[in-house]
Design a protein that fits this description.
Structural class of chain B: alpha/beta
CATH architecture of the largest domain in chain B: 3-Layer(aba) Sandwich
CATH superfamily of the largest domain in chain A: MetI-like
Radius of gyration of chain B: 23 Å
Number of domains of chain A: 2
CATH superfamily of the largest domain in chain B: Periplasmic binding protein-like II
Distance between the termini of chain B: 72 Å
CATH topology of the largest domain in chain B: D-Maltodextrin-Binding Protein, domain 2
Order of helices and strands of chain B: HEHEHEHEEHEHEHEEHEHHE
Radius of gyration of chain A: 31 Å
CATH class of the largest domain in chain A: Mainly Alpha
Strand order of the largest sheet of chain A: 1-4
Shape of chain B: elongated
Structural class of chain A: mainly alpha
Distance between the termini of chain A: 48 Å
Helix content of chain B: 25-40%
Number of strands of chain A: 6
Number of strands of chain B: 11
CATH class of the largest domain in chain B: Alpha Beta
Helix content of chain A: 55-70%
CATH architecture of the largest domain in chain A: Orthogonal Bundle
Oligomer: heterotrimer
Number of domains of chain B: 2
Chain lengths: 448, 275, 384
């Protein structure tokens, strides 16, 4: 081969390496960017007056006097809509048979679309369901609903043997000549003043309870549940992991027993997470009966087993990285082994151990499969500390799955789903950034 | 001195923890079971917690079978199910000292849904079965566009699946290519994004898709209640023993008889029973 | 530890006999306490095996082994039920294979790049990226696969695949053309070489471009009937397995040591030659272990496959057709566990444990293999 080709090959080889790293970065961006871009909409969005009203009534926050004034002007703007509907209802009865039937069913659709856009008509009985008491709380969703009022989706199946084509039929056309007709133009032009949208930063998305299964409010029960589960898992796993690491590094003599221990630890690290879930159900709940049903306690224990190997390994590495001279100096000064471990070894190894702990916290926070059978439910209140011993909790990872696949209104609450994913990812990223920062400090200390 | 202090604290903490665990920690109602009944349970829970802020109601939607299992294991207060309890399950309950009491809370129709662009508007039960067994493979055979049918079913652990299996499949088996999804919401979502898909869901889940008629009957509240629509079934809640109105569980459960309860059932898309 | 023994002796001299006994006792107690805590992980593994096997065993008692491993009929709730898990096992294997195809080449190349090519400062940037990839929760990946990737794949699948094809194949084709034309002209007199090489190169590149255009024409025509399929899951699982593959193979590459590299450079090899001919073969067992760990991660993953694999219990036709939905062991356990405990002795409950047991055995097996390889690798490193 010629030298130039060899050089080309050499460069190409480095190039493919770089390419693969770039590809990795790209895939990270492709995954994270939509999550950030759409997740942020759960926090920053244009809220309508319906949202302000809902927050005031449900969460008792906001300026009620100011809202009254706004509400008054919104009501004035809405009045012509309701007047037109009232007038049309009377007119409807005067129409002749076939046209009346046709318009009545179409009018019913208009009514229900309007209700979900603007909230219940004044004077109608209140539904016990929250979702029927308020109009659209978000301006972007209101636009979608407006389309549903203005247009009827129809499908043209006239070409046999082929898929139908979608058509949007303006309802103005359907109701042409009736007293409802002017309502559509009015609605289209005046929706602004009817809903009074305004940009808002809803940081309380994190700290508000959810109302009516996540159609309103925030994700506090999920956030809290995730925190409980993570911290609970840490409470079990950290002492056990650090003690095991101390034993393995300081006490155990190489031999068959240690070999078995190590094999078991790496085996445990390889057990699929769903198997942990099955085991947690069969062992902690059905056999040990730590709680009568799913509970945070059982979930934490299951998660603790899952992250135990990570913590043991990280702590072991951290302890082994402590220079021998530290230990020997302490021992030669007359310190006992335990005393040496507590006063010299652990403090010196602490940053390394912390890194391991922080990283496994991220893992525990994000795991779903182990908590499906042991701790997670789709609806529940935020728990108090004592309730965690006996009660299950909503948790971010499970509820992301639940809302994305099982919720009745998947599309309407996309922003909540993305908001949850964002929250979870940011939680995990913060934990990892902490770990990276700690490690950088260790590296600096080692150098200096 | 230091060590003594630590030991002391540990003792106090330990004692405190045990004492506290022994105490009841507020009222709670644990509900487990069907995703189909989930919306009703969640609406009821929300409503009841609004009226009784001291009660914590948690709702899991993990499938009817799981609900029965939880009730048998005494792990839940109310099991929501979209099929009646099986004899085996009842026997297991007896063995565990549990007496399952059945409450029919509402009716539900199983709507067969396709993408709105699909011109097929009606299927007979036999055709439906042919689609799910894989003998009919292309929409062309049913007068639709030339596209392979993407067959979507609920997971085998759901009551919806079992009802569909009894009412439609009649001992025949679904084809291997059938895609299984975990919930009604997921079925609908797959159909909205897939022009060639067919799926079956609870009546409450037909927004954005096209519900086709079965044997020329539209699935709606009337046809479900009067039995004309064949794919209809009752929805159940099970409790351990009879529950009295004085307990939270009892009052929660009996919501389905109240005017508000019936309104909620209707609002989430199901059919409240006549009285 | 001679020093501590001296310490003990000196203490014995000072302390009373009784006190020393107490001390020895506490030390023994402390030590056994530590041992007990350490063996929690052993106990956990043991209990996991016992509990899973205990519940898996009845299944094989009731239904035997044959159906489970040879039939593709998965109708757990049918009447009579059928429990053929073959298609589900193949599903798991298929997505794991797909994930390996994505993760192993990319991961090894990235590891090589990290350990030998990139300067220190860039490495400091690249490492956190890999860590973040590893840290993103699986449910977030699953959500992405279901909500963003699946619809995109379904609507613009042809375009996405074409772009991928060009991105991967074009550089590879250019490189191959260069090498081949170089090899072809090797026997020709020096004066005519540049011209010949040019012609040869152009023909090859032209041919490759033609093939690519043809191929992308086919790809663009492709209709993907459902975006939740094996391909979707394979790609996402591949991305999830990448960090494991990268970090473990990088460790292996680092462990090879400077002397081999310097020896190779001294003989006049370029960096690529050094890496391909010397370093990678030397680290091969470590890289194999890394790949096994990566595949293990893909097989054991639940949420992504549950949400985005389509969950159809079938063996795709032809079997390598990744565009069809499949069902995996983990997703079946998660999705089917609803029907559980109460109907004691029901095969339907125990079959899930049989699946868990298969998963467990697989992970034990691959863990053992990767440990074994790793140990051999380390001992060879230590031996020189």
């Amino acid at each position: 081969m010629e030298l130039s080709t060899r050089k080309t090959l050499d460069r190409a080889f480095s190039g493919t390496g770089m390419f693969s790293i770039c590809l990795m970065t790209a895939s990270l961006l492709v995954i994270l960017l939509p999550v950030f871009a759409k997740g942020i909409k759960a926090f920053v969005f244009r809220e309508t007056i319906e949202n302000r009203k809902m927050i005031l009534e449900q969460f008792h926050r906001g300026d009620s006097a100011a809202l009254d004034i706004e509400w008054e002007s919104a009501r004035t703007a809405r009045q012509p809509v309701y007047d037109a509907m009232q007038a049309f209802r009377i007119e409807l009865d005067t129409l002749e048979g076939s046209r009346r039937r046709e318009l009545r069913s179409s009018f019913r659709e208009v009514e229900s679309a309007l209700q979900s856009l603007l909230g219940p008509e004044p004077g109608s009985t209140l539904s016990p369901l929250l979702r029927n008491r308020y109009g659209q709380t978000r301006w972007d969703r209101a636009q979608v609903k407006l389309q549903q009022v203005l247009f009827r989706e129809a499908w043209d199946y006239s070409r046999p043997g082929e898929a139908g084509t979608r058509q949007w039929i303006p309802r103005k056309q359907t109701f042409a000549g009736t007293r409802l007709e002017p309502m559509f133009d009015h609605l289209e032009t005046k929706l602004d003043s009817m809903l009074q949208p305004r940009w808002t930063f809803y940081w309380r998305f994190l700290s508000d309870d959810s109302r009516d299964s996540h159609l309103f409010g925030g994700i506090w029960p999920e956030v809290l549940g995730t925190l409980y589960l993570t911290i609970g898992a840490m409470l079990f796993a950290v002492p056990m992991g650090v003690i095991a690491a101390i034993y393995l590094t300081e006490y155990a003599r190489p031999g068959r027993v240690v070999q078995i221990l190590r094999t078991c630890i790496s085996t445990l690290a390889g057990v699929p997470s769903i198997v942990f879930g099955l085991f947690g159900l069969a062992f902690f709940i059905n056999t040990l009966q730590v709680s009568s049903s799913k509970s945070v306690l059982a979930g934490s224990m299951t998660l603790a087993l899952l992250i135990l190997p990570t913590i043991i390994r990280a702590s072991e590495e951290a302890i082994l990285a402590v220079p021998r001279t530290y230990k020997e100096a302490a021992l030669s000064l007359g310190s006992g082994t335990w005393n040496m471990i507590l006063t010299v070894l652990l403090p010196a190894a602490l940053p390394g151990i912390l890194t391991g702990i922080v990283i496994s916290m991220g893992r525990a926070a994000g795991e779903t499969a182990p908590i499906i059978f042991t701790a997670a439910v789709s609806v529940g209140k935020p728990l108090t500390l004592l309730q965690t011993l006996t009660q299950p909790t909503p948790a971010l990872p499970w509820n992301i799955y639940n809302l994305a696949t099982e919720h009745a209104a998947v599309e309407e609450i996309r922003h909540v789903q993305f908001g949850m994913v964002l929250t979870l990812v940011v939680m995990v990223l913060i934990l990892n950034a902490t770990a990276i920062a700690i490690r950088a400090r260790i590296a600096r200390r080692m150098k200096g | 001195m230091n060590r003594k202090y630590t030991r002391f604290t540990a003792a106090i903490l330990g004692a405190g923890l045990t004492a506290v665990t022994a105490l009841a920690v507020g009222d709670k109602i644990v509900i487990d079971g069907s995703t189909t009944v989930g919306p009703i349970a969640k609406a009821f829970a929300e409503y009841y917690m609004g009226k009784n802020p001291s009660v914590n109601i948690s709702v899991s939607e993990s499938g009817s079978g799981n609900g029965a299992k939880s009730l048998v294991n005494n792990a839940c207060d109310v099991a929501t199910m979209s099929r009646p309890m099986k004899a085996k399950e009842k026997k297991a309950a007896e063995g565990a000292g549990i007496l399952p009491v059945e409450h029919i809370v509402a009716m539900d129709g199983i709507a067969v849904i396709v993408h709105p662009s699909n011109p097929v508007a009606d299927l007979t039960v036999d055709k439906l079965r042919a689609i799910y067994t894989g003998t009919v493979k292309n929409w062309k055979e049913l007068g639709g566009p030339d596209a392979d049918i993407v067959v979507i079913s609920r997971d085998t652990n759901s009551g919806t699946y079992e009802t569909f299996e009894t009412l439609v499949m009649k001992k025949e088996k679904m084809a291997g290519k059938t895609e299984y999804v975990g919930s009604n919401g997921a079925s609908r979502q797959r159909v909205t994004t897939t022009p060639a898909a067919i799926a079956y869901v609870g009546l409450a889940f037909t927004e954005g898709v096209k519900a086709i008629t079965v044997d020329q009957v539209v699935a709606n509240h009337e046809t479900v209640l009067n039995g004309k629509y064949v794919l209809a079934r009752p929805l159940y809640m099970y409790t351990n023993g009879r529950v009295s109105d004085t307990t939270h569980v009892g009052r929660f459960l009996n919501l389905y008889r109240t005017a508000e309860g019936r309104r909620m059932i209707e609002d989430v898309g199901y059919v409240p029973l006549k009285n | 530890m001679p020093d501590s023994r001296i310490l003990n002796v000196s203490r014995d001299l000072v302390l009373s006999r009784r006190a020393s006994q107490i001390q020895r006792l506490t030390s023994l107690l402390g030590r056994s306490f530590l041992f007990m805590v350490t063996s929690v992980s052993v106990l956990a593994v043991l209990f996991i095996i016992i509990f899973i096997t205990r519940d898996a065993f009845p299944f094989f008692q009731i239904r035997g082994f044959r159906e489970f491993f040879t039939s593709t009929h998965w109708f757990p709730s049918g009447n009579p039920p059928e429990f053929g898990a073959l298609s589900i096992i193949t599903g798991s294997a298929l997505v794991a294979m797909g994930a390996a195809i994505v993760a192993v080449p990319l991961g090894v190349l990235a590891a090589v790049c990290l350990s030998d090519v990139l300067p220190f400062s860039l490495r400091q940037v690249a490492k956190p990226i890999i860590e973040i990839l590893a840290a993103i929760p699986s449910v977030a990946y699953g959500f992405f696969a279901l909500v963003i990737f699946a619809p995109a794949l379904q609507e613009h699948g042809g375009i996405i695949l074409t772009v991928c094809l060009w991105m991967l194949a074009l550089p590879a084709a250019l490189l191959a053309a260069t090498v081949i034309s170089d090899l072809v002209v090797a026997g020709i007199p020096t004066s005519r070489r540049p011209a010949m090489r040019g012609i040869c190169w152009l023909t090859l590149v032209g041919g490759a471009l033609f093939a690519l255009v043809q191929g992308s024409g086919h790809l663009l025509d492709l209709t993907i009937s459902s975006g939740t399929n094996a391909l979707n899951v394979s790609i996402i699982l591949g991305i999830m397995a990448l960090p494991t593959v990268v970090s473990v193979s990088e460790d292996a590459l680092q462990a090879v040591g400077r002397d081999l590299r310097e020896g190779s450079y001294a003989l006049g090899a370029t960096r690529a030659e050094t890496l391909v001919k010397t370093i990678i073969p030397a680290a091969a067992s470590g890289i194999a272990a890394a790949s096994i760990l990566g595949i293990m991660r893909a097989v054991g993953e639940t949420m992504v496959v549950w949400m985005a694999s389509g969950n159809a219990a079938q063996i795709p036709t032809p079997w390598y057709n990744l565009l069809q939905p499949v069902r995996t062991l983990t997703a079946t356990i998660a999705g089917d566990m609803g029907e559980a405990d109460h109907v004691l002795g029901s095969a339907r409950y125990h079959v899930l444990f049989a699946m868990a047991l298969s998963l467990l055995l697989f992970s034990f097996g691959s863990n053992f293999v990767s440990e074994h390889i790793g140990r051999k690798f380390r001992s060879r490193q230590a031996g020189g």
